[in-house]
Amino acid sequence: MALLTGPLPRVPLPQTDRPGSVRGQNPPTVVALGGGHGLSASLAALRLLTTELTAVVTVADDGGSSGRLRRELGVLPPGDLRMALASLCDDTEWGQTWRDVMQHRFKSLDNVEGSLDNHAVGNLLIVTLWELLGDPVAGLQWAGALLGARGQVLPMATVPLTIEGDVLTEEPGGRLRNVTISGQSRLAEAGRNTHVNDVRLIPDDAPACTEALQAIETADWVILGPGSWYTSVLPHLMLPQLRDALCRTSARRILTMNLAMDTKETSGMTAADHLSVVQRYAPELKFDVVLADPDTIGDRARFEAAAAGLGARVVFGRVGTPGGHAVHDPLRLATAYHDIFAGQ
């Protein structure tokens, strides 16, 4: 067997406009944007509907294994990218095995402070490919090829991003104080008795991934959410080049709502408030459909009015797992997306 001694060649990008294909025919070309578990849920559903699938992933994570690699090596945080790849892995024994390898985390022995503790194998593999290739997109393509991924995974930006937010905090006695919190991991854990009232990206003019912009331009459908609203969903609207691409594309746009509204970073917010935040950060961006589970919406009239402000109609569908847990069920979510695609 020949050994590869030189630089790894770049894996060709999948062609979204193949010779003889007609845009809009099945399978649809879909771009899903987000990060973390929310994006993974969307990808697990979408991979059942199309092979023409691109994930555009946030690169602002600064906690855990990703944060350590980012600080120590100056690379993009690989964790959310790894999770997206694992969600797209092939159903064969090969794909499932490599998915488990990518997701495996090292655990040091008790009372041992090991340098590998809590590092995900997939994070180390992805960073290795980046160092060998000098190209984050090519590295992700090689990782995807190893897993037999049904689609491609791209970073939203070509440099690591930092999310900074102003949080209104209620102190003992009811006095309110505005505190600036820097970092995705800290902002996501803002906690109860707080209200995030402003977020921004640093740097605010970071270059978007060129391949991500191209994928959005040629897509039939673009799906934003679900995911942590301020730290996984909104960052895509705060990056100027990416926001402009989302506004310009001729693709139809879906905004997928979360199943839990009152989280640590969205304390006290209703479903309608979530939509108002989207409109605040991207007033020029319009959606075609807002997908929501009816069990999560309190005031439907207010929610539908907020959706209309985004130019969208509301589609209600039971997309959560049975038992009332705030987790999207891939089959139910796939059914909802299928019905929306078919209805156009």
TrEMBL record:
GO terms for biological process: regulation of cell shape. InterPro entries: CofD, CofD-like_dom_sf, Gluconeogen_factor. Pfam families: CofD. Keywords: Cytoplasm. One of its GO terms (cellular component) is cytoplasm. One of its GO terms (molecular function) is LPPG:FO 2-phospho-L-lactate transferase activity. Residues 1-27 are annotated as: Disordered. Its main location: cytoplasm. It is found in: Cytoplasm. Required for morphogenesis under gluconeogenic growth conditions. HAMAP family: Gluconeogen_factor. Belongs to the gluconeogenesis factor family. This is Putative gluconeogenesis factor. It comes from Crystallibacter crystallopoietes.
